[in-house]
Design a protein that fits this description.
This protein is an alpha/beta fold and 247 residues long. It has 8 helices and 9 strands. The protein has helices at 23-31, 73-81, 113-123, 128-142, 157-168, 187-203, 214-220, 238-246; strands at residues 3-16, 43-58, 62-66, 88-94, 97-100, 175-179, 206-210, 223-228, 231-237. The strands form 2 sheets. Strands 5-6-7-3-8-9 form a 6-stranded mixed sheet, with helices on both faces. Residues 32-40 have low confidence and may be disordered.
Length: 247
């Protein structure tokens, strides 16, 4: 059974005094006898990106992260995926986590499409033997044909996205993280991509998706977390949160 648990979780980012590390600044310090200085630790301020998060997401829930740009949604997704770790508090989860935040991450432009299937698959934690068993299906779904064996730097943007999408969506995690709903390719590919993504979402135990779309979250999600300045302003049934957030 999958779950996500946050107990008094906060994340702090130190913002370093970049000017204190520049050559120009160093020379000016020497020339002025050290009159132009900086903090002894090289830091100017600590930014609290997430503050005092306390919530639990249970098996079967589909959660929308709502909030304006800079509210903390992307930081929250990175925390959930393990990219960031709490500065304080405890974050626990049960279940394999899969992320569709950046589906093109790890694609090497000098490698062929076939080689990139293995590169991207490895980053997703997919076993090589499993990738080999599914590679024909991945290639067929991507609709790349003979282009699969030439460097991806020769691909159009649409071909690149089809490859990345085909590999990234073979995962079947218990907890799925998304930054907006993926919409890739031309009309011919978009319908099959939409079906595949819908099947993936339906198969996962927990979905957490950041979105600005009222229609999407109302249709897909069961619960909303409205974030503001790194805090959860409202947590409740999706229809109540949508009404409060969108007005």
């Amino acid at each position: 059974m999958a779950f996500i648990q946050m107990n008094s979780v906060s994340i702090d980012f130190p913002v370093y005094n970049v000017s204190g590390r520049s050559l120009k600044k160093r020379l000016l310090q020497v020339a002025t006898g050290g009159q132009l200085g900086s903090g002894s630790d090289g830091k100017s301020v600590v930014v609290r990106a997430l503050e005092d998060l306390n919530f639990r997401i249970n098996d079967g829930e589909r959660v929308a992260l709502l909030g304006h740009n800079g509210a903390g949604k992307s930081t929250m997704l990175r925390l959930l995926s393990g990219v960031y770790h709490p500065s304080s508090g405890v974050y626990e989860h049960e279940g394999q986590i899969g992320s569709l935040i950046d589906i093109s991450f790890g694609i090497d432009p000098e490698a062929s499409g076939r080689e990139n299937i293995y590169l991207r698959g490895a980053l997703l934690g997919i076993d090589k033997a499993e990738l080999t068993s599914q590679i024909d299906a991945i290639i067929e779904f991507s609709q790349l044909g003979d282009f699969i064996d030439i460097p991806t730097r020769t691909y159009s943007s649409g071909m690149h996205l089809r490859l990345a999408f085909a590999v990234s969506t073979i995962i079947r995690p218990q907890i799925l993280l998304m930054d907006e709903w993926l919409s890739v390719g031309d009309e011919g590919f978009k319908s099959s991509a939409e079906k595949r993504l819908t099947d993936l979402v339906e198969s996962t135990n927990i979905l957490v998706i950041a979105s600005h779309s009222k229609e999407l979250v109302s249709h897909v999600c069961t619960r909303g977390l409205w974030m503001e300045h790194g805090k959860v302003r409202m947590d409740g049934p999706i229809d109540e949160v949508v009404k409060a957030y969108f007005g």
